[in-house]
Design brief:
- The complex is a heterodimer of chains A (156) and B (126).
- With 156 residues, chain A is of the alpha+beta class.
- Chain A has a single domain (4-142), classed as OB fold (Dihydrolipoamide Acetyltransferase, E2P).
- Chain A has five helices and twelve strands.
- In chain A, strand 1 (4-7) and strand 2 form a beta hairpin.
- The termini of chain A are close together.
- In chain A, 42% of the residues are buried.
- Chain B has a single domain (8-51, 69-125), classed as DsrEFH-like (Hypothetical Protein Ychn, Chain: A, 3-Layer(aba) Sandwich).
- A five-stranded parallel β-sheet of chain B has the order 4-3-2-1-5.
- Chain B starts with 7 loop residues before the first strand and ends with a strand.
- Classes of the chains: A alpha+beta (156), B alpha/beta (126).
- Chains A and B meet through strand 8 and strand 9 of A and helix 1 of B.
Chain lengths: 156, 126
């Protein structure tokens, strides 16, 4: 199991890379690809998700462009890619049941898999490990995020 | 799913603070379109104009258990890249001037809205 830390109940996995302002994560895979998803904080701020629509496989994305749109009863917005690359797979399960993202934001709720094109450079702008925990402490404080609540069956 | 990135959507909002349940949805649709990378503008005219008066949108809350007000929705729309524009002529209906408007809203005249409607890929009218 990956190491996790909690800040006001919000789970941060220390093995992932984060774009703190966009509340997204990047997981480095052994084959050079990356998985991208929303953080626990993001799924909490959005609330129970009703729909998730990913961009199509084969779509090229520059860092900051959306790889998906997600919507709840109270919010709709993009999931901005923390890195540049081509979408090589999408999580079809979240299109059938977007609440998977609420229940398992870092595992079953991954959103897209990408083949990165500028990973080494772009990772420098992301935070991981203890630095990620510190960055989120500041973010949660600055944005006055009340904390995270988890549905039954939540997994980090 | 087809990709509609870059399409232009014009949302026309004619309902204001006297009908709260008609105020959120146009902004929600606008934000959805912006999240899909469309070029989105909301045009406030007729009664729609009065929600842009400073201090008014904060009073409108559809869900009493939520912190989200109409002002929150307007701010989220701006943050999402949605352009908010108001009809110059309609300001007079509500005894409003530019100084009365919340931040982030620009004033356009009637001829501009005709041009924008013709240039848009789709117009949604509320």
């Amino acid at each position: 199991m990956a190491d996790t830390q909690e800040i006001r109940g919000c789970v941060i996995r220390t093995d992932l890379y984060y774009s703190v302002d966009d509340h997204t994560w990047v997981q480095l895979n052994d084959d050079g690809t990356v998985n991208i998803g929303m953080t626990d904080i993001a799924q909490n701020m959005a609330g129970p998700l009703l729909h998730a629509k990913t961009k199509a496989v084969g779509t090229s994305r520059k860092k900051g462009r959306p790889v998906a749109t997600v919507e709840s009863a109270k919010w709709v917005g993009p999931v901005k890619s923390p890195i540049s690359g081509e979408i090589i797979a999408v999580n079809e399960e979240i299109e059938k049941d977007a609440t998977i993202i609420n229940r398992s934001p870092y595992r079953k709720g991954w959103i897209v898999k990408m083949q990165p094109t500028n990973l080494d450079e772009e990772l420098k702008a992301l935070v991981t490990g203890d630095a990620a925990v510190e960055a989120y402490k500041k973010k949660i404080e600055a944005d006055d995020i009340k904390g995270c609540e988890h549905v039954e069956g939540f997994e980090a | 799913m087809d990709d509609f990135e870059g399409k232009k959507i014009l949302v026309i909002q004619t309902h204001g603070v006297e009908t709260p349940t008609r105020t959120y949805s146009p902004l929600f649709y606008a934000m959805a379109a912006a999240a899909m990378e469309m070029d989105v503008m909301v045009w406030f005219t007729m009664n729609g104009t009065n929600q842009l008066k400073k201090g008014e949108a904060e009073k409108i809350k559809l869900d009493p258990t939520s912190d989200v007000t109409l002002k929150t929705m307007l701010e989220q729309a701006i943050d999402s890249g949605v352009k908010l524009r108001v009809c110059q002529q309609s300001l007079a209906l509500w005894n409003m001037t530019q100084d009365d408007l919340i931040d982030g809203v620009e004033i356009l005249g009637a001829t501009s809205i005709i041009n924008l409607a013709l240039e848009s890929d789709h117009v949604m009218y509320f």
